[in-house]
Amino acid sequence: MKLNLMITWLFIMVDQVNSENSGIQSENCIPFKAVIIWDTYTDGYRFFYYQRVFIVKLINEMPDNSKIYLKILGSDTTSFLHFDKDHLNDSWVEKIAGINDPAPFRNNSISVEIIRNDVFDILNTNMAVEYFFVVNECSEIEEEVIKMLKKQKTFVAFAGDTDSPAVWKRLSTSKKHLKNLNDDVHGPLGPFLDILCRDSLLMCDTDMYWNGFRCYRCSYICTSIPSEFCKDECPCM
Q1: Which domain holds residue 56?
Q2: What is the CATH number of the domain that holds 122?
Q3: Half-sphere CA count of 184, side-chain side, radius 13 A
Q4: Of 21, 51, 17, the residue nearest 36 (C-alpha)
Q5: What's the total number of domains in the chain?
Q6: Which residues, in sequence order, are CB contacts of 147 under 8 Å at separation 6+?
Q7: pLDDT in tens, 111-148
Q8: Is residue 223 in a domain?
């Protein structure tokens, strides 16, 4: 019964957002590859609930044809959910709602193995790649992961009663890529969504820009006093 109520509520939330917003896909927000790491281990259900609501809202707001790679870290295993975003097909909502309880105990920290294949997927060069870490006060991460994602577009959504620990601030590309999940989790994504859309246009690493054919270093177009062109092409510099 509890699961059925959760599924119903999540579908209502998705329908409400869709009725208010016909879709964010525009020249300012195009399909991208979203790698979402969800650490489900937490001391209480509240933060797990915040995380799940956020993930559903996040995916629902993404442009159609975005490629979603959701990796759910449990106590013993890592589950995967891969699909192309399509606002006419919301079957993914029920699958996320089916993850009904947080992991009962801590097994491992977020490791390099979780993201290695995505970082080195050199064949996927036709769209931007954005990383989303949905974590909480109990989450841990290996230092090598932070180093590996240093030049990637990396977002962090932190659920907890305190401010985000320094490790998550270091992981996120900028302070605008970091969101604290609390009692306003039901509110709009706001600036977080704006940055997500902006980054969907950035095909290269954060220290490079796309000239229409390949990636070049931002140092070619940016100086100590950046021009407007530099700010547009290399906004993460």
Answers
A1: 2-203
A2: 3.40.50.410
A3: 6
A4: 51
A5: 1
A6: none
A7: 898 888 887 775 556 899 999 999 998 899 999 999 99
A8: no
- In this prediction, residue 26 carries a pLDDT of 56
What tokens does 7 get?
Answer: 């599924």
Quick one: tokens of 221?
A: 């177009």
Give the β-pairing of 67-73 and 78-84: antiparallel
Instruction: Reply yes or no on whether the pLDDT at 183 is more than 50.
Output: yes
In which band, very low, low, confident or very high, does the pLDDT at 19 lie, cut at 50, 70 and 90? very low
How far is the C-alpha of 178 from the C-alpha of 56, rounded, in Å? 17
Q: Which residues contact 220 (CB under 8 A, 6 or more apart)?
A: none
| pTM beyond 0.70 | yes
All residues at 6 or more sequence positions from 227 whose CB lies less than 8 Å from its CB, including other chains: 221
Pair of tokens at residue 33: 């590859």
Q: Tell the residue number behind the tokens 């993404």, with chain if given.
A: 62
Tell whether 96 is covered by a domain.
yes
Q: Is residue 32 classed exposed, middle or buried when 0-12, 13-18 and 19+ CB atoms within 10 A define those classes?
A: buried
| CA–CA distance, 60 with 85 (Å, rounded to integer) | 8
Query: 56 near 48, Cβ under 8 Å?
Result: no
DSSP characters over 13-64: HHHHHHHH-S---BTTB---EEEEEEE-B-SSHHHHHHHHHHHHHHHHHSPT
Report how far residue 226's alpha carbon sits from residue 223's, in angstroms, rounded to the nearest whole number.
5
Residue 29 lies in a domain: yes
Q: Is residue 231 part of a domain?
A: no
In this prediction, residue 2 has a pLDDT band, given cuts at 50, 70 and 90, of very low
